[in-house]
Amino acid sequence: MQFGLTEEQEMIVSTVRSFVENEIYPHEDLVERTGEVPPDVAERIKQKTIELGFYACNFPENVGGAGLGHLEFALVERELGRGSMALNHFFGRPQNILMACKGDQIDRYLLPAVRGERMDALAMTEPGAGSDVRGMKCSAVRDGGDWVLNGTKHFISGADHADFVIVFVATGEDMTPRGPKKRITTFLVDRGTPGFTIRDGYKSVSHRGYKNMILEFDDCRLPDAQVLGEVDGGFAVMNEWLYATRITVATMCVGRARRVFDMALNYAAQREQFGQPIGKFQGVSFQIADMITEIDAADLLTLAAADRLDKGLPANREIASAKLYASEMLARVTDTAIQIHGGMGLMDDYPLERFWRDARVERIWDGTSEIQRHIISRDLLRPLGA
Amino acid sequence: MKVLVPVKRVIDYNVKVRVKADGSGVDLANVKMSMNPFDEIAVEEAIRLKEAGKAEEVVAVSIGVKQAQETLRTALAMGADRAILVVAADDVHHDIEPLAVAKILAKVVEEEQPGLILCGKQAIDNDMNATGQMLSALLGWSQGTFASELDIDGDSAVVTREVDGGLQTIKVKMPAIVTVDLRLNEPRYASLPNIMKAKKKPLDEKTADDYGVDVTPRLEIVKTSEPVARAAGIMVGSVDELVAKLKEAGAV
Question: TM spans, by residue (chain B) (predicted)?
């Protein structure tokens, strides 16, 4: 077992961290207050990321990415996690599912996405289909040589800035011994396609400015050329590419927790009550000890899961454990940080309440904590026949 | 033209400095270390000269403990072409004094024959502000210190210096030593391709003995102490009260 980062990995961490501190932090208050990312700020972050060679660093070199491994990419995401989700969206990391592009899809979607010319978004969730993906109502039916899409997707992050979306819809149903099972197909849909609208979603308490959008398909007609992967092969595409997004959630939670921890640590050292820094009271000092222990544990769990992916080992359970633990750790750490800060921690003059609000969604999106526990326990019990 | 850039590994500027219990210096054990920020500006300027076609090669050199290798890798990741590490101490708390550093650098200059040396005006750890000047004396080269602008014009360098009274522009003959100030440029981030390439760039390792320079300290540190803690401020209710308080304090 090897612990510690290589010199390159250390430099990647310090470069991304400086980038976040200098290019993201200064705009965070504005985004929080307005709920919007000014277009010029977005463009500047994007251009600087491209110049630095970090844009689409999760893609292989043969398509123009930087070819980072899972571990390195997790380190990049961890440092990005310190900054605003709305802003670091423009430190572009297109969905790696685009690697499933074939034929002229490569020139129309994959390469422009990697170059930062076209932004993507991924659409799976529906009002009636959250954890139960197969319960989706969005459907595509054959009409002549085309497909006709109908239905609604919601909670679609990044769709406000997307030039195209990668959408999962039902294209049929199979009867199985356990009941009917939907067949899923993945489509690439350009913004502006007739019958396709993107509109503002709900106002979330978490990650202001990182909007969740609603997509509506109303007799939206698409040719076969828009199918990503195979017809009815949506689940295969999903399984091949989407597992890693949960590592992203886990590692971002770790980065954000470290930022919050530093605030709590400094406050505990400086704030005086009863004639001494509150950090000298055991009640506070033990909270500090518990926070850093949990953060380090989540960090190691996450990096170890990423390392398994790099080594080609099964990592489904490890990724689920990392996502579960890191997101729940962030909830505890942000809550304790507020407790240490007392009343001021809740005031929006101070950045802390934002991290507390932002932390809430991490236990829900990309698979709720309950779904992660399900994945972990099934992985252990199924081989035993239970 | 070859540009030589000496860089120093120092305590990171974000770290809250703590004095060692015995007062012999600042505690550097398990503390984050980085490239001296002024040296980072020097590296940036050297790379810009190369990009502008005014320099062919940028060589970074660091003198200190073996871990200064990380500092050199940072310089390589920013865009320096190669690096020289001169190991002169085993203990991170052993700070090599400016004269010894300047003597070693003079030997490196003899070997490398650079046309220009760019270095930080001072290191943020001990603020000596001496190495560049001493090196200039040892080599008999012209010097332009505290540069906020630099223009290479054939065989001379035009240096704008930040002096107490304002800005002074001087023209010095090359080869020259230019020590750089804060406003000369804004150092770049290391790009991802350059980070990946840094490991493959040559990094020569030497020792102070290779150059026959004695690095034994000539200065004795008598005492190191924390700055006096600032007294708490007071809140005033109005401008009038503020003026009254300032008058009371003899400040206006």
Answer: none
